[in-house]
C-alpha cells in the first residue's frame, strides 16, 4: 500500500494485541477504511517504513492496554504522532481494550485526548462506534448501501447508517443460512425471512433480533406453524399443520400446545 493511501496507522503491543488488531482492521477495511500496521505493511526498512506511514496517515489509532502504554516502540510512535497532532495535521484515537493502569509516559500524550471504549462488551458494537468516529475524522460517510464482513464470518449486504445495519439487507452465513429483511440498530427487526441450510424456514415479524409478532415457520419435514411468536417461541394463538395430516388450532405457550383442538387426519378431534 502506498503511504499516500493510508487512512489509519495502527499502533499496538504485538504480543498482547495481535488478535485484536486483526479483528479491528478487518472490520475497518471491510468498510473501506485503509489501514496500515506492522509487520503486515512494512516495505523496506522497518523503522523507516513506520516513520513514513505515521507521517502520511490521517488517523493514529492506538490499541491501548497496559502493555502498549509501557512499550518503548509504541511510545516512540506516539511521540512522533503527537507532533503532527499538535500541528493539527492528524487525529489520535486511543481505543482502550482493558481497564488497566497505564504508564505516566503514555498519559503524558493521551490525558487530554478523547478515548474510544473497546473494553465494554459487545466488542463488535464498540468497533462499529470506532469506525463511525474514524469515518467522521477522515471526512467520509459511513452510511448508505454497503457490504460488511462481520466477525462471525457472515456477510451483510444492505443499508448502513453510522456503521450499523439499519434498513433492509441480507445476511449470509458460511454454513449456508440466510436472512433477508429489515434491521434496526444492527439487529433483525421488522419483517424478515430466515432460511436455514437444514431446510427449515421462517417468514414474519422480528423484534430486537428475535421472532416476535406474527409469522410462519416451516420445518424440513413439512410441518408448518402459522401464528403468534413471543421472543423466539410459539406463544399465543396459532395453527399447527403436521405433515401426517393432523392439525392443531388453539393456544401455544413457549412452543407447546396448551389450549385448543387437535384434529387427526382421520377426522377425529380431541381437546388439548
Our count of domains comes out at: 2
Overall radius of gyration: 26 Å
| CATH topology value of the largest domain | Rossmann fold
Q: In terms of structural class, how would the helical and strand content be classed?
A: alpha+beta
**What is the count of DSSP helices, taking H or I runs of 4+ residues?**
6
Q: Looking across the biggest beta sheet, what order are the strands in?
A: 6-7-8-9-10-11-12-13-14-15-16-17
The count of β-strands is 17
Would you identify the CATH H-level superfamily of the largest domain?
Toll/interleukin-1 receptor homology (TIR) domain
How is the biggest beta sheet arranged? Answer: 12 strands, antiparallel
CATH top level label of the largest domain:
Alpha Beta
CATH A-level architecture of the largest domain:
3-Layer(aba) Sandwich
Please report which band the strand proportion falls in: under 5%, 5-15%, 15-25%, 25-35%, 35-45% or over 45%: 35-45%
What is the mean pLDDT? 93
From the spread of the alpha carbons, the general shape counts as: elongated
Distance between the termini: 68 Å
Summarize the structure in words:
The chain is α+β, with helices and mostly antiparallel strands and 272 residues long. It folds into 2 domains: 3-137, Toll/interleukin-1 receptor homology (TIR) domain (Rossmann fold), CATH 3.40.50; 144-271, Histone H3 K4-specific methyltransferase SET7/9 N-terminal domain (Single Sheet), CATH 2.20.110.10. Helices cover 25% and strands 40% of the residues. It contains 6 helices and 17 strands. Strands 6-7-8-9-10-11-12-13-14-15-16-17 form a 12-stranded antiparallel β-sheet. Strands 2-1-3-4-5 form a 5-stranded parallel β-sheet, with helices on both faces. β6 (144-149) and β7 form a beta hairpin. α2 (46-56) packs parallel to α4 (72-86). The model has no long low-confidence stretch (mean pLDDT 93).
Amino acid at each position: 500500500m502506498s503511504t499516500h493511501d493510508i487512512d489509519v496507522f495502527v499502533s499496538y503491543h504485538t504480543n498482547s494485541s495481535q488478535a485484536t488488531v486483526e479483528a479491528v482492521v478487518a472490520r475497518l477495511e471491510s468498510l473501506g477504511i485503509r489501514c496500515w500496521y506492522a509487520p503486515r505493511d512494512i516495505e523496506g526498512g522497518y523503522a523507516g517504513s513506520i516513520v513514513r506511514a505515521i507521517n502520511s496517515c490521517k488517523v493514529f489509532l492506538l490499541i491501548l492496554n497496559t502493555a502498549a502504554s509501557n512499550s518503548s516502540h509504541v511510545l516512540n510512535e506516539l511521540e512522533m504522532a503527537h507532533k503532527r497532532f499538535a500541528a493539527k495535521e492528524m487525529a489520535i484515537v486511543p481505543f482502550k481494550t482493558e481497564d488497566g493502569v497505564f504508564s505516566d509516559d503514555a498519559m503524558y500524550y493521551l490525558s487530554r485526548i478523547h478515548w474510544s471504549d473497546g473494553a465494554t462488551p459487545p466488542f463488535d458494537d464498540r468497533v462499529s462506534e470506532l469506525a463511525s468516529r474514524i469515518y467522521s475524522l477522515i471526512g467520509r460517510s459511513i452510511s448508505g448501501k454497503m457490504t460488511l464482513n462481520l466477525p462471525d464470518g457472515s456477510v451483510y449486504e444492505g443499508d448502513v447508517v453510522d456503521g450499523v445495519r439499519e434498513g433492509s439487507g441480507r445476511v449470509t452465513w458460511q454454513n449456508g443460512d440466510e436472512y433477508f429483511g429489515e434491521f434496526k440498530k444492527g439487529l433483525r427487526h421488522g419483517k424478515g425471512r430466515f432460511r436455514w441450510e437444514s431446510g427449515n424456514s421462517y417468514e414474519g415479524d422480528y423484534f430486537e433480533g428475535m421472532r416476535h409478532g406474527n409469522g410462519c415457520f416451516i420445518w424440513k419435514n413439512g410441518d408448518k406453524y402459522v401464528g403468534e411468536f413471543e421472543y423466539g417461541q410459539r406463544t399465543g394463538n396459532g395453527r399447527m399443520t403436521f405433515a401426517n395430516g393432523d392439525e392443531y388450532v388453539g393456544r401455544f405457550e413457549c412452543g407447546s400446545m396448551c389450549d385448543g383442538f387437535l384434529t387427526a387426519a382421520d377426522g377425529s378431534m380431541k381437546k388439548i
